[in-house]
Task: structure prediction
Amino acid sequence: VAGVVIGAGMAAGPAVAGGGAIAAALLAVLPGALPPVPTPPENPPSEAKRVLGKILFFDEQLSSDNTVACATCHVPGNGGADPRRVRTAGFDGLLNTPDDVFGSPGVIRSDANGDYVRDPVHGLLAQVTGRNANPPINAAFATDLFWDGRARTQFLDPQTGEVAVAAGGGLESQAAAPVVNSVEMGHDGRDWASVAAKLAAARPMALATALPADVAGALVDRPTYPELFERAFGDGQVTARRIAFALATYERTLIADDTPWDRTQAGLPGGLTPQQQQGLNQFNASGCAVCHTPPLFTDNTFRNIGLRPPAEDRGRQNVTGLAADRGKFKVPSLRNAGVRPSFMHNGEFTTLQQVIGFYGGPARSLDNRDPAMNNVQLPPPPPPGQPLPLQVFLQTGLTDARVANQTFPFDRPLLYTDRPGDRPAVLAGGRAGSGGIVPAIIATAPPYIGNAQFKIGLDRALGGATAHLAVSSSPPVGGVIARESLLGPVTVPGTGAGAGPATLHWPIMPGSVTQGQVVYVQWVVSDPGAAGGEALSAPVQVRYFCGQVGCAPKCAADWDGSGSVTTADVSAFVNAWFAGVAAGTRQGDFNRDGRVEPTDVAAFVTEWLSAAGGAC
Ligand code: HEC
Ligand code: HEC
Result:
């Protein structure tokens, strides 16, 4: 189905209801009307797991090209939804037609080597999901996740296929999907072994600033993923199952249960205003609560409200194969609806007024529409200039202030994509090549020190041409930069004018550049059709940055910190390693997996050999 791109690899089959194996949550939640958080016994909560999950949720390094975190599409202050709302072609495959969907941009398509690939639909822009992002907040209460419930209650270990959670593992099943999905976070064919290897070598939260206190605290004495995994799971191994377990544990703490409605229920101050109360009465009288049932304001069933013809997106039918499920989608919780940027699985509406207008308007599609929709009867319109109490209730009566204000547990760091000043900036300039086409430069990778996947793309150049990336420390003059050095070459694939894309991989090695240093880059394409035989892309300003955890250390092989790698480092390391083994401490744990063992010596020697003689 054209409209569905997320987790397409997940097998379809009959849904299994969550069973009695679901234990009550041990994590503290505010007293309120919500039931205890269901938690599967296979994944008992712990503080170490929760913090690890939070770190993973906000780390853009979880994506192949370091541009997308879970939190890029799930913003706490937006109720866990995505304010970016990018229009994408729906069922008909055509943009700007009525069946378009508003989705979330993920990664620019790239192949298994990380080379940019032109996607048939999205070209070289970030690919867009086929549905609107629904929130992880309060998602813990649903048995099966996603709009169509394809993330199952039974969680199979993505690497071994074993049953990792027998029932109640919807969050675990869901969390494993985006990381290897080639639209959301992965390159084509991404596998879990490469995800694990990447994380093991990464500096957690390397791109983020304004770290929440719990995240910053956890990183003080455990600054690597293997150390964080060791504290959460007993040893430093990074696996798909553990990533999913940690993310799910974090999400089970994202419980928005302190709204004016909850306060009225509990007899606490800060409850519903008279107007909100009137809106609640209208909500109940209008037939909304049949599906949006308190206290969750969803009954977590799948229903068809006749938003669009089922053929445009079959929804639940894709998962169950049952014709009776055509066009059904998960009833969304209305908690925090007032801070959500868009509504419905297709992201069609941006205001609650529009949603109410839909429920009060003429039926759109009657094919398999839920009978409960026949009983929906909106209140009479308010006097001119007055708000409809029902709308006021939905707008403010179900909003948890901690979500709206992004305070614990809904607090968050700032991501790379939240800080325009850290992004490469495209400047004016460029010179046309064959066909009168100016080569395009793709500069979306984050230039943080230690980014081994940093890359610059080239598109719309002469097929078969050789291109270099010119690098300069001074700004362009007249749109052209001085060529202090030339990186490459790369060869433009394809034939004829305007071909591409090509990719230059340019790891930003610690020690080679300094934080805040600015360079200017520009593609130089040999092209007989260009003035002077060279086509130029626009110049780009790149400023190297480090997140709040600081810049990656220059070289790990400089064990004694002398500033250069010498034989003294070998003896210093070996002494530390023996001391670590003898005393059972972490000294000499070179690969930081929580154990001092021969693999650390091997890892050190490898690093030392590649760095020996070099200045640090
Ligand atoms: C590129 C954007 C994007 C990224 C990155 C992303 N998501 Fe989502 N998420 C979505 C969309 C879109 C949906 C709804 C898809 C559907 O139902 O077909 C969704 C659905 C979900 C849901 C289901 C909520 C429910 O009630 O059913 C959860 C939970 C979730 N995402 C958590 C995560 C986690 C954890 C990560 C990181 C591992 C993540 N997401 C990464 C876009 C994204
Ligand atoms: C038959 C069950 C049913 C009834 C009755 C119903 N809804 Fe819904 N509601 C749904 C479903 C299912 C969706 C998601 C539909 C989709 O995306 O295709 C939804 C979506 C919504 C949304 C968007 C939430 C989001 O995050 O996207 C709002 C707001 C909403 N309903 C409010 C109401 C109000 C107000 C009423 C009463 C006037 C009402 N609903 C009646 C089932 C129902």
Summary: The CA atoms of residues 127 and 183 lie 6 Å apart.
